[in-house]
Amino acid sequence: MTPPAPTPRPGDQLASTVCGTRVVVIRASAAAQSQLACGGSPLVPAVDAPPAKPGPAGTATLIGKRYVDATGTLELLCTASGAGELTCDGAPMTLKTAKPLPASD
After folding, report:
1. Closest-CA residue to 86 (of 71, 76, 96)
2. Predicted confidence (pLDDT) per residue in 26-68, tens digit
3. Domain ranges of the chain
4. Nearest to 26, CA basis, from 73, 59, 62
5. Which among 11, 35, 42, 94 is least surrounded, fewest beta carbons within 10 Å?
6. What is the pTM of this model?
7. H runs (alpha helix) in 1-105
């Protein structure tokens, strides 16, 4: 079994070992020791991961979408979709919503 990824840092590329999900860390707290997982299995560095398996039609992670943890200190960008659900320290990560644009009158 491949060891889990160390503390995530911006720019890290991580992959799931149980599905085709691959992510890039966009934002992470330097002090936090977050345990990232997908489909119940820890994410590993993408270079150590098995080849990506394509996700089924009803995937849990969507390519091009950003996912954030409950505190908003960790942000991941999905680069390959998969069937597993992203979690941070056991809590599901949520899709980041777009910021509303200011109204122009």
Report:
1. 76
2. 998 877 778 899 888 898 998 876 665 554 545 588 899 999 9
3. 13-95
4. 73
5. 11
6. 0.81
7. none
